[in-house]
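Quarterly update, task 2.4: 2-acetamido-2-deoxy-beta-D-glucopyranose-bound model.
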Amino acid sequence: MIERPKSTSSSYIILSLLLSISCITATSPSQLRSVQYFLPYCSYLSVNLSSSNIATLRSLVQIRHYLQKRVRDLTDLIYNNEHPPTDPVVIHTFKTKRTIPELKADFDISTQNLTKIDDESEAVISQLRATHHLPHNATFSYVSHCLSSRLEPALYHGRPKVSFLLQYFKRPQMIDSFVTKLAGSMKKLGVAAELVVNVDNVEESQQWAELSYSTNGFVVPVLSNNVHEARAYNRIAGLARGQLLILLQDDMHPPEDDVWVQHLLQLFSKYPELGAVGMMAYRYCIPTHSNSYHNSLYFHDKELGIKAQFVAAADFAPLAVRKTVFEEVGGLDEGLSEEGVCGIFGDWDLVTRMWLSGWQVMYMDVDGLQVDSTSSGGTHKPETGDRCWLRQAKSAGTLFNSRFGSIHLDICEHVQQLNLKLLQVLNPAAPCPYTSCTLTAGA
Ligand SMILES: *[C@@H]1O[C@H](CO)[C@@H](O)[C@H](O)[C@H]1NC(C)=O
Ligand SMILES: *[C@@H]1O[C@H](CO)[C@@H](O)[C@H](O)[C@H]1NC(C)=O
Ligand SMILES: *[C@@H]1O[C@H](CO)[C@@H](O)[C@H](O)[C@H]1NC(C)=O
């Protein structure tokens, strides 16, 4: 139940707080962007072009510019290595470890790709002209000049696709095998990745700096002074450059193989509205079910051959999230716990906000996750455990319950329908986890 403010002075404080917040949002740039195209020359683009057409055209333009740049540089490199200059400055300028045949092969592929992109852009542009989505006289240059107001960061060279986010606190014995496993499996998978680590005990900074060096920058350490998980993940999520964030904890070792990351990428690509995938524990429904763990799924995605199903709640960790969705819903709630205090309820709170914002949440079975049993994590030690699982659980739980209350039941209904409509039964011998496992009429 929401209590009414007791005195006028406290409601005055709340009112002025709200006003100051609305002042901030009212002046934020994203709220002022009703004018899409500043120049009248470009304004046609806001009339008839859909956002998906804009995205396609932008990517074509961006890729074409990168190829033009590459071909330009390769032309100069080939010329100056075939005709070696005498001026030491020019020699240094065009020095390369690649051989002339390698440069020429690269040149050939890049020019072929450039021609392909040229043809593709011309085809798209003339089709959009014919259907009046672009002006009758629109050219590639017109589209380039007007649509390069924004760029697609995923197309930047060498940008990681996956960012592992690790919250680390005093567990030096796990570091080597943890980092080796992740770096190895990502190399095998051939997907650009990084491991951003919040080092929550700064005194180990030297060791992490050395790891950044020895892994050629795969490890990106961030030094914090015991901020604990909510603030740690928000800080490193902001720093991460991948589109997919995989939140990890230092007491759970990732599998040796790369299959789990491959499966995550497949799920996020097949389900465009998927916001998060948990891999540790889940609930079909927060108020009516209890926690379920590995090897307990009733549904799966038969087409992909992946053991995953929609769930109302998923726990840390690992927990994979789409970066844009994590940001859109406000990340983890730092108001749920003070600095240095455990983030209990933070995971359920995050995924519940995703459901309420129209995103989906899944749980996926991962083989080979290993709990590090060499020492129990900070929040599981007897002297600190009650502080988290008892005291913090009560206060954060109070907030969580009044924030969402009975709306969980609506989410559960929606999750059930998604499972029945989009997935297949994995284990018909198991009892149906719902009152009924048949679709309701008209759903
Ligand atoms: C050329 O295109 C192929 C196929 O799309 C791609 O795999 C390759 O990376 C591209 N190479 C360059 C240099 O653009
Ligand atoms: C937008 O497209 C429609 C057809 O889909 C066309 O009739 C209309 O003239 C176009 N608008 C402009 C400003 O060209
Ligand atoms: C297209 O033609 C219109 C006049 O019909 C002119 O105002 C506009 O600048 C032209 N646009 C381009 C891209 O040439």
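Highlight for this quarter: The chain has 14 helices and 14 strands.
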